[in-house]
Amino acid sequence: MGAQKKGATARVSEDPEELARHPLQAILLADSFTTKFRPITLERPKVLLPLVNIPMINYTLAWLESAGVEEVFVFCCAHSKQVIDYLESSEWSSQPNFSVTTIESHNSISAGDALRLIYERNVIHGDFVLIRGDTVSNMSLTQALQEHKDRRKKDANAIMTMVVKQSKPSPITQQSRLGTDELFMAINPVTKQLLYYEDKAEYSKGFISLDKTLIADNPSVILHNDKQDCYIDICSQEVLSLFTDNFDYQHLRRHFVKGLLVDDIMGYKIFTHEIHSSYAARIDNFRSYDTISKDIIQRWTYPFVPDVLCGSSAIKVERQGTYRASDVTLSRSAQLGSFIFIGQGTKIGNDTKISHSVIGERCTIGSNVTIEGSYIWNNVTIEDGCQLRNAIVCDGVILKSGAVLQPGVILSFKVVVGQQFVVPAYSKVSLLQQPTQQDSDEELEYADSTSGTGELRSDKLNGDIAPDLSETASELGTGGVGYIWKVFEGAYDEEWRHSVAPIPTDKLVKLMLDRDEDEELLTQDGNVISASGELKTDSDGNGSEDDDNEDSRDDYVSFEKEVEATFLRAVHENVKVDLAVLEVNALRLSYNMASVDCGGAIFYSMMKLAVESPHNSASELHRNAADIVTTWQKLLKSFLHDIDEEIEVILKFEEMCLESAKDFAALFPQVFLMICLDLEDALMGSR
Amino acid sequence: MPYTNQAAALIHSVKAVGERLIAANPVELAVGNVVRRVLHIVREEDLSLTTAAMAGLNLSAESDDEDDTDRDNHPALSAAAIAAASRSTLRPPSLQTLLEDVPDSAAVPHTSSSGGDSEGKSKSADKSSRSRKLKHDVIEAVNELIQDISTCHELIAEQAVEHIHQNEVILTLGSSRTVLEFLCAAKEKKRSFRVFVAEGAPRYQGHLLAKELVTRGLQTTLITDSAVFAMISRVNMVIVGAHAVMANGGVIAPVGLNMVALAAQKHAVPFVVLAGSHKLCPLYPHHPEVLLNELRSPSELLDFGEFSDCLDFGSGIGAPLLHVVNPTFDYVPPKLVSLFITDTGGHNPSYMYRLIADYYSADDLVLERRTTSGN
Lengths: 687, 375
Hints:
Chain A is α/β, with parallel strands linked by helices. Chain A has 22 helices and 36 strands. In chain A, the strands form 7 sheets. A 9-stranded mixed beta sheet of chain A has the order 15-16-19-22-25-28-31-34-35. A 7-stranded mixed beta sheet of chain A has the order 5-4-1-6-12-8-13, sandwiched between helices.
């Protein structure tokens, strides 16, 4: 299909038919290049983790197929073998009109590397959809694609269309819903061009800064904090070559998007497409895993919901959002609450209470167990009397009777928790030991021997398996197997932010308070950057930073006036220089100014006097100025003690030439020379 | 056994395909209905051929006997169906044997073929012609079924003038192609009447129907679903489409129709359901509000962006207080339906079971392979 265009270059062709000939392609990055899902991702790639009992990548592929994509290139890096094996054995390998091709790499450490590799393979022949394997959506691509193509026809520099979604701009929603940082975007409301993108805004600063030219170049700009980035991009081929040209680009947003917006490379532009009724979100951390699972159970992602995706009639939706497979063994006294999913072959014992949870296949759950808001994957055994709250429990885990999981616990594959053992909140437990170094955000998820077991903590390096187990037995109670990962210094505070557990009330209150304080701070400045309010073009680009200085500037203006009046009085009444110095000094103290300001103000008054005194020609004006400067040299000199103050004076003169005293503009070089000489004379004396 | 019963093999494979089709979308009952219709056709055609063959055998029964030695030489050529047929000629043909499921089990031991042929050559020719006949008949009957389904709108619409009278007011909800053509057919016959269209939230297909009716020149009034009770007293007849008609005469219909049916009953307005015969489902509804329903995305009801703060799982108890339910279908019990109009005419809800007996054979009601794979 795409063969006829294989050798052709990447340039856009003007002929719409030729464009239409390409099958729609997509690049699916089956690696997040982060470590947020550790320790689980040490053993299994993130895209294969079950999301409501179906591997995440299935949601993404199902969406791509329904959106009319014909060719998908799945880029796998960490655990590439597992991903490839899964895709080959799944139904995706045998779909008509939908081909899934895997591209394997072992040394890519970022999305940038991945795209560079794909560029080298030369498989993309037109516009393509760039998506991560952990994105869930049900949007229709047709309109966004059409918009992208139309824009391309008009402007070949429109290389990317980013899908965004409105999300209520409640002060904390974004953080508490998806666990992501607040995102600021500046968008031109007419052209939908993206002008500014900042996802790491710091609240402590209380402001964000926009480039002045951004406002100067666009008739209107809307600054949004109510948009959610869906991480679905429609890109042109140029995107790939840009990544190749800028080999330091790693992160899709942090480097590529910001780089393009800030550095203005070749005039390339990024546009946005906002979706309204459809759903799109990316699983970035454990909190968004929890949120998106619940959205799926609530059917926001319809038709990508478990009972439809599973294909057969094996899973039925019952009242109150209960999803139940056909052969679940349920004790008569078990209480199933609302919004739960129970997979095939699971057995549930007497008096067990389950609510807001997902339970996978072939699990055995004993009696008197309480499960709330938890995600239990396949083949898990939970013995009698256990309590689980907001936890993730991976395949093959065994909870001995009476074990308690506090909110936010992650139990990785095949961990065993001992009898009556209480796993503390937010702890992550794995059979693998924790790598020693805190990895950077860009670290590759790898679980092979080189990074998984190679970076063991030094105190455990020498032990073989048996002593390890006995050692850890104490870590997880009697009979427990696994290591509790230590939380690193400083990271503990952040733990609750990205955990599956709801944000504790005290943190929530604190978060709200912080926000309130921030807002008060901004209101005091008299200029709040409203949620999505329009910034007028004439307002200063540097926003609140200048506002801080506004008061002081007002002071300076009146000070300048006073100095001028004093100077004029001195000229007209022939006041002695010493007295004038005294008077100016008094003014300086009362206005709390530096001597720099005095020098500037005095010089300003001198030049103003020169301009205002009658003159006919430029040379006369020059003479006037020279006269005044020589007469009042001493006054000026007493405020110019070092080089900084001289510079200030020269700057002042420049400012005058530009603004108030246009006549001087012509004379600027001569007068400048004169001042320099004079100042030098003056200073020679003082030194 | 390459020459076992043709019809049984066909039924088996149709069932296998049908099962997959049904599993793909269990809520769409029409799929299962059509599969059952096809199975019924195969059975019927096979039965009629068997009876025809038997009639032929009875005529030539006397001449068969001398060929008994011959038939042993060609055991492999004997066709199972003919064997069965010949076997049944040895017994008196009774109603029992006619209605019995096609006797595929008896095929092998009885290799005799006394089908009136004196030579093996003509025997095989007859066998292949018989199987060709079956194939031909089945194809023809299935084509007829396709024809029936594609013309069911016209067949239903033809009856419009009998039901819609001058200056009447008709109420409908949502959009249905059958209803649209029914109303337009009455309009073409110079009947003048008015239509109230309830918009059919949350998909608002009533808006489209109203638009379409207006372009065809019908006097149309659009109302909200909640205004149905207020308007029903001025209505002469309610005419709606259906998603499926169950064996008890109950109707699976777009959401909101149960309310309309109750309003119609309260004001003694006839509630008429239009349904092509392919929507006639031989199953009885058990727990239809849930099991035969489809819950669609809540985004049809409200904008996710605007309500995302209500769906915040990170704060509070970790569970949302807001729950949006968006069912697609309603179940209207048979006692609320006054009349069904199908392509074969008007029927009472209590008569539905008779129609079902005409269209489907009882063996196919449960379409699971386990029941037939015993062979």
